[in-house]
Fold:
Amino acid sequence: MTSPKRQHYPPPGNAVALPPSPSRGEGVTLRTAADLVAAGLVDESRRAEIDAVAREFALAITPDMATLIDPADPADPIAAQFVPRAAELATAPEERADPIGDEAHSPVKGIVHRYPDRVLLKPLHVCPVYCRFCFRREVVGPGGEALTPSELAAALDYIRARPAIWEVIVTGGDPFMLAPRRLSSIVGALDGIAHLGVIRLHTRVPVADPGCVTADLVTALAAEKAVFVVIHANHPRELTPASRAACRRLIDAGIPVLSQTVLLKGVNDDAATLTALMRGLVAMRVKPYYLHHGDLARGTAQFRTTIEAGQAIQREMRFRVSGLCQPSYVLDLPGGDGKVPIGPSYLAPAGDGPFLVEDRDGIRRAYPPEGEIKN
Structure:
């Protein structure tokens, strides 16, 4: 676990952004090393390094995220997520191009079918920002293939033909990057499949580019079926007034919003930072859902903590933070075998029948208590 001295976050419930400079926080998305240098986010001496990484993996930083970066802080948690580093060009032995087995479980283009009752639908491969730790970093980015009309039709036909599919997760890429008309068409098609119960959309847009959550986009999500939106946020500084307003537009329209977070070394791998993030999310009516252990994506070793460190953080938070603020700590198994919970256990067998249960002070107590076991 990293040192708790990093105080990169505001008090829970507040949203504080760094004051924008004239070249940051305005204008277009930054997509090249030259853009980052011109915006004052990196020194000219890093141009060649960033160019080399950008030739391998996509680069994009929205004005909203650029504004949050403190270029004077070499440990800035927002820069760590979005500004390329040379370490990304080193591949650890355990890393792989498809770390969670999307390709092995893709029976039709645009579909990933890992679980009996749900599938991923990936209509596009572009995102508002490109996270340096992304598990799909090999396939996302400008020029990434979107589904053609015939490919999308085939993907929808695959879902229609399988009554066991109860939930569709629309992901990518980022589905909120679609024009509202196209997004509405996809949601409407899914809404018309009788055996579906839930339509879920995973997106970084409400945090990374919140101005795109317009009334038209919210209207595009209207459906008779349950529609859930899952946003991605990793640090409390990302919960800006604009991102709060974007989530409020979704929630006020009756769309439940959940969140997922990736446990990242140097960004959020301490209980204080994660507590501030989870409390901030809950305060804006967003329920924390997943805390992901870092995937074995190529060039991402610098972000991965140990599982033991993640468990220690969760243990520290368990009895000190509201249950509303507790995400499920999960590992996506390599090869496509699915997510498994990997949080700490508080229960151990103690012979025939009783258990030992660890309480909030770390004391193990018998359950049932001695003298209360009945035949």
Q: What stands out?
A: The longest strand covers residues 226-232. The chain is about 25% helix and 15% strand. The chain has two domains: 103-341, 345-375. The two ends are 46 Å apart (CA to CA).
